[in-house]
Specification:
By secondary structure, this protein is mainly α. It contains 16 helices and 14 strands. Helix content is 48%, strand content 11%. The longest helix has 32 residues. The chain is globular, with a radius of gyration of 21 Å. The chain binds protoporphyrin IX containing FE.
């Protein structure tokens, strides 16, 4: 499906084209110049804005752009039969008013104070991972490092043992990275739901200090929260908290492996670290979401019909020269940096404090122990794309 090569990116883009996944920036530059909101019939059809101002405007306008279907790929009903049990992924797929109260239930788990409590574990984890390969002089900075970190921190928040990490990662890949493959999506989704049903029974019998136990005791307007919503919030935490940050850490490692001066600068000037983290998030933003238009609406001269899908191209917005000077340069201490890597408006990332902490700690611990490293000779860097874009394999030597 959709395998014919793209000849016109303004009318027929393919977000899963392997060259685009590996390097989408020239395509967005071209589109911004000639057709800032492109359209394609592939993958169910969608619009692709490339300018910061358009992406920002759509993200803020939740009255006209609904979140009922945030997946970047669409399927007809015959292509994807409905699952036996489905769970909502609130708050990300909810509009107001449900969005407001489901988001409120989750936010305390990702406050600054909570995230500080997860930091010592994250630091110890990064060092444990580095211990595993430092003697060998080589590693896959994406597979052996970036991929291993966020899923373990999420396991801690859910109160399950670290040895669930590979299983969770597999399910998240099934539903996000392989969203174009019916069988894999069904496999990942059904296994995750079955697991959450078991966890629900277990937490109801033996509550602990974890996200699901907390949600099971929560009340909204004097009523307990329905089981399916509790399961959905925990499922979203796993789905949104793993691949996203893994991709950001992987891109940061790839950047530092290919820009040794920047790695050295972070060692010499640790005070710029907070700015550097924002810059790495901007330049290599991993996440694209979608919206559905509620009624016919025109955006920057484009006539969108009710029910159309619009891709929230946060990564493209973050490379818009109208918003960022020299957007393709990574300037570690960039001062003006109102990036939208975490989105904008009511759905802005609920886990951004956690993501920033994990990215900062992962970079700090690596450069402390492995200050000088580079891509291995003939290294093959591979990419995943679509909803979340990031490097899957970054072979480095040191
Ligand atoms: C670098 C890592 C991350 C990036 C770039 C990122 C990006 C985003 C973006 C762009 C959105 C907006 C969605 C929309 O507009 O439809 C979002 C929402 C969300 N993110 Fe993240 N995210 C990251 C890490 C995390 C982590 C670690 C968690 C925690 C488990 C998390 C949980 C969420 C949740 C729950 C939402 C939904 C918020 C809502 O709908 O109100 N994210 N994220």
């Amino acid at each position: 499906m959709d395998s014919k090569p793209v000849t016109d990116w303004t009318t027929d883009y393919d977000i899963l084209d392997p060259d685009y996944v590996a390097d989408p920036y020239p395509v967005w530059d071209d589109l911004r110049g000639q057709c800032p909101i492109a359209h394609s019939d592939r993958w169910g059809g969608s619009w692709l804005p490339t300018k910061y101002s358009d992406v920002q405007r759509i993200a803020q306008d939740h009255a006209h752009f609904s979140s009922i279907d945030v997946g970047v790929l669409s399927f007809t009903d015959e292509e994807r039969p409905p699952p036996p049990i489905d769970i909502p992924l609130h708050p990300i797929d909810a509009d107001q008013p449900v969005h407001t109260w489901t988001r409120r239930l989750l936010l305390p788990w990702f406050s600054h104070t909570r995230v500080e409590q997860y930091e010592p574990y994250t630091r110890e984890l990064c060092n444990r991972l580095i211990d595993g390969f430092i003697e060998s002089g080589s590693a896959d900075a994406a597979g052996d490092y970036a991929r291993q970190i966020p899923v373990r921190v999420i396991s801690l928040i859910i109160g399950v043992p670290e040895d669930m990490a590979d299983t969770f990662t597999g399910w998240v890949q099934d539903v996000l990275e392989f969203a174009h493959d019916e069988a894999r999506v069904a496999r990942g989704r059904d296994a995750l739901i079955a697991y959450l049903l078991g966890l629900l029974a277990e937490r109801r019998a033996n509550p602990g200090d974890d996200l699901m136990s907390d949600l099971l005791h929560a009340e909204v307007d004097g009523e307990p929260v329905a089981d399916l919503i509790v399961m959905g919030i925990v499922a979203l935490t796993i789905i949104a908290g793993v691949d996203t940050t893994w991709s950001s850490i992987g891109s940061a490692m790839l950047h530092l492996a290919t820009h040794p001066d920047d790695a050295q600068r972070l060692l010499d000037e640790p005070e710029i670290m907070p700015l550097a983290i924002e810059e790495l998030l901007r330049a290599y933003s991993p996440v694209t979401m979608a919206r559905i238009t509620v009624e016919d609406i025109e955006v920057a001269g484009c006539p969108m019909k009710a029910g159309d899908k619009v891709l929230m191209n946060f990564p493209g917005a973050n490379r818009d020269p109208e918003m960022f000077e020299h957007p393709d340069d990574v300037i570690l201490d960039r001062a003006q940096n109102r990036h939208v890597a975490f989105g904008a408006g009511i759905h802005r990332c609920a886990g951004s404090n956690l993501a920033r902490m994990e990215l900062r700690v992962a970079v700090e611990e690596w450069i402390k122990r492995i200050p000088s490293f580079r891509l291995a000779d003939n290294a093959e860097v591979t990419w995943a794309g679509g909803q979340v874009r990031g490097p899957r394999q970054v072979p480095v030597v040191f």
